[in-house]
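Running log. JK asked me to keep both predictions on one page so they can be read side by side. First protein, sequence followed by its tokens:
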Amino acid sequence: MIRTPLRPLARILRARERGENPDDIEAENRRRRHEEIQDRARRRAEGRLVVMAGCFLLAFGTVAVRMGTLASSEAAEPRAQVLSSQIISQRADITDRRGRVLATNLLTHSVYAHPHQMVDPIGTAQGLAAIFPDLDVQRLTRDFTGDRKFMWIKRKISPEQMQAVHDLGEPGLLFGPREMRIYPNADLASHILGGSGFGNEGVNSAEVIGVAGVEKAFDAWLRDPGNEGAPLALSIDLTLQQAMEDVLWSGMNVMNAKGATGILMEVKTGEILAMASLPDFDPNDRPRPLLTGEPSDSPLFNRAVQGQYELGSTFKIFPVAQALDLGLVNPATGINAAAPMRIGRFLINDFHNYGRELSVTDVIVKSSNVGTVRIAQMIGPDRQKDFLEKLGLFAPTPIEMVEAPTGQPLVPTRWPAVTSATVSFGHGLAASPLHLAVAYATIANGGKRVTPTLVHGRQRPEGEQVMSPRAAAMAVDMLRQVVTRGTARQAEVPGYEVAGKTGSADKPRAAGGYYENKIIASFASVFPASDPKYVLITMLDEPSTTINGTSVRTAGHTVAPVAAEMVRRIGPLLGLEPITDEILPTITARFEPRVEPDEEAAVRLVANQ
């Protein structure tokens, strides 16, 4: 900026020539300069006032707009109270397929202590021990009178306990809000739900996380605020689950079994309507895992998913169904059933001597080991392995539970002739009851592979066509005859067309080998046989009953009656109307084998070789 001099030389000289006082020029210039300075200061002050007025206007306008927005919106409670953004305290509910609550949240409190702020630590320790009998008064006294600055007393307490603690009047005892996961049905479906616990936690909030079952498998989904509190709808039906567990408990007691398993699955969708493993537990008070003994001794062990069992004669339908599909046999084909049968240095026998020849249907109806092995030999080891793998018996089931990968079937590494023979009648390959349910559902579904699920209404891709619908229907018909005139007659329930197969297998020892007098008794069933809708697997661990003074352990006398009672209970709950003789369709009539006499003789000759 160029400043005007106060005494410009030219003007001073002209003033002197005219006789004027030069000091007047300086005074005039000084006055003008001061006026310019004042003008600039005034303009700067006015600009600041305008900016400040704009800021105030913007701030009050923002507040007004926000107040208007809040006033026009509906009131809502905050979803969660958190200590920090890392602790998520809201968790979605879990319901059954009808929307009935299986797991939900309850607001409660925790109690903690600041011992250094206590007035009467000894009296407080005694008072807390009276309220919570599981607390050790001596240990509390030691902690309260020591150097500790903070300690948890209880991470979740009831309102009555909170009031009792409050009545102690101790300023060193404080409360913090908690969200507690509760299971209103106690031990019902406990292995499916699994349980939950606390993750990150502070005095004002705690993160609830899944520790097992679907609670852990869907942990991220249940904690995702993007789901806006929508519940996780499982495929199970609470009423069916209760009925299944009631029958299994009764069956365990009557048959003196160590454990029991039941699975009810929809054939078309693969949705599991009920699944139980006994003994079970209460997820509200989940027990600690066992550190010694066999895993199945723990109530936490899920026999339906984690159990690896040789499932005995329930496997016999698989080689028969495959042979039917390959066109190697038909239901009337004669099979050499002469026992014993030698494979290398091994002898294969039957429970009874069934004579020299049985039809393929009677091989299943009478549960002939020798006949089943003959059919497996016609198939060959390579095709047998491929078929069993397509049924899902070589890999863990894809069920939505964290325990599923631990149910890896025990498959032989080598597959010589003797392995092919023993696997054909359910020995040498160990799988879970859920694997068995999936395999039977595939046969009942017209030979189309079924994928099990615990989520209701989930769209799933169609499975692979493992066998022809015709072969599958003939296999179901054979299973029906097992119940009407075979080893599973005690599983018959009039009007419900139960089709199934019993299986009895020696129970393996954890250290290797088998127990002499302990078995796994299974019954795999499909109903109604004329239009298969459901698969039911029932298994008893170490059953034993007495008939006419003789101890009996076989599946036909132990688990088959339990399965029949279960069908009687759940059939009406499923809305199935009993089928009368007047409208009873027959699968055999629809799939009557059409084999010429010469062709049938050729097939019989091959089977007898």
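And the second, directly underneath as requested:
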Amino acid sequence: MRCSLFIMVLWSALAGLAQTNFDYFYMEAEKSRLAGDYSSAAELYQHCLDINPDAPEALYNLSLIQFYLRQDSLGTAMLRRATELDPGNPWYLETLASIYMNRRDVKQAVPVLEKMAAIQTRRSDVLSQLAHIYKSEGETQKAIDALERIELLEGKSGQLSVDKFALYMDLGEKEKAFQELQSLCDEFPHDMNYRVIMGRQYQQVGEMERAWDIFQTVKQKEPDNQSLKLALLGYYEEQGDTLSYNHLRDSLLYSLSTPSELRVAMMKDFIYRARNDASQVEPMKKAFDAVLAMPQQDAQLLSLKAAYQIYAKEGDDAVAETMQKILEVDPANEAAMSHLLQYYVEKNDIPAIEDLCRRGVNAFPEELAFHYYLGVSLYQQKKLTEAAEVFQQGLRTREEDASPQLVSDMFAILGDLCHQQNKTQQAFEAYDSALVYKDDNISCLNNYAYYLSLQGERLDQAEEMSYRTIKAEPKNKTYLDTYAWILFMKKNYTEARIYIDKVVDPEEPEDSILADPSLQGNVIEHAGDIYSQLGDVEQALRLWQMAVRKNDDTCTPVIGKKIKKKRYILTEQ
């Protein structure tokens, strides 16, 4: 007897010690999890399970870490075990249900949701989810039962009754379906919209007289009911009563009391009819003119008109005019701004681009396109400092998912701006950033390589970057000139001539070379420099003189000395 008592005391002590150890390690695991150290937390939760394999709290928290680590199968098994050990825990059940629903595993989700609904009897959101699943799975009566449980919790509502009506109709129980709508009308006798709903449903099943009687009853009580007027439009259309339809439609379209959403819906219907009946196009356009002549509550109708103009291919100018009107009503309409920006860019309308993008930058500071085109427009106007500031601001405020191409282009242009402002180091840093976002940004590679060669820095790297550009675009004269110039700077004159001849063909007549818009004076000067270093003074003089005749202010300040002394002179940096 004493031995048994001793064993019981010892066992109790050991159990208490185990629980103490479990509690300690569980708290340490919780601290690690809350600190974001999931690796340590996982180890500590596992140690808890080594002490007590049936601890649901440890299983649950470790399962969440497994999901985080994308060990979904293991996480699901642990979570399912936790719910088995603690079947009344709503948090465990809700997590398991969400896992199944995310996988679209309805078969597994339904029993869990049903258990949740049984435990938390006032969870109408769970019942609603079940009703949706039951309906989609063809278990119509179960869906009705779930909706009725919601109705007991929340009371009768229009949406619930309409949903139950549809389900009864699916079952072929027409009488019960209409009884449901009648009970809704009885519950809310002063809300005529529910009677309109019932009338429209009678219309749907072909009981036109009953529908008409209901509509007339509503009309007597609320002659200005908007839902009724829409229902009557459908009724007149189905009856083929064109005169009544047009009269009611026009009264709604041109009434100042008609809500904007309703007017837009009616104009959408008008457009749909016009698309299928050419005779309706002109009346539809006249209706647009009339409704747009009225005070506009918002830009919805103008946006609808613009969408129709694009569909009907009425021309870019007409669409742009409508987009301008949209901005007059809604100055921060991003869709209109974006469309107009594209329109102005295609027309190269620099003042319009600048004005629009200034508004865009203020309204949408995170949208890079407005910063980009504003900066470009300022660049083209030689406002270099302001352009650089715009690019820098845009790059600071950009969103994380901004287009890598656009980010790269902005850094590349910022590099060009810094170079023109004699900020060489900042220029190179900007180019480096551009290539981080898109390492094959060809124009950036070209400019970076060229400016490195002008500085006489990192010529091997410059050659490698420049070579990538001519591989990408082997006929681009700008890129060929850069590559030839880098070879020249590396004193590889013979190979430099091979590439510069592809840019400035020495066999071509002078007038043809001078008429080429892609050839600037400095490019022709480069060709002269290369020929000079190869000892062909006559050809060098001819090319230098042509470069001067180009008269585009791109030649070096010492080109006159080159011609006078008949030799290459290093350009002052």
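Observation for JK regarding the second prediction: DSSP finds 32 helices and no strands in the chain.
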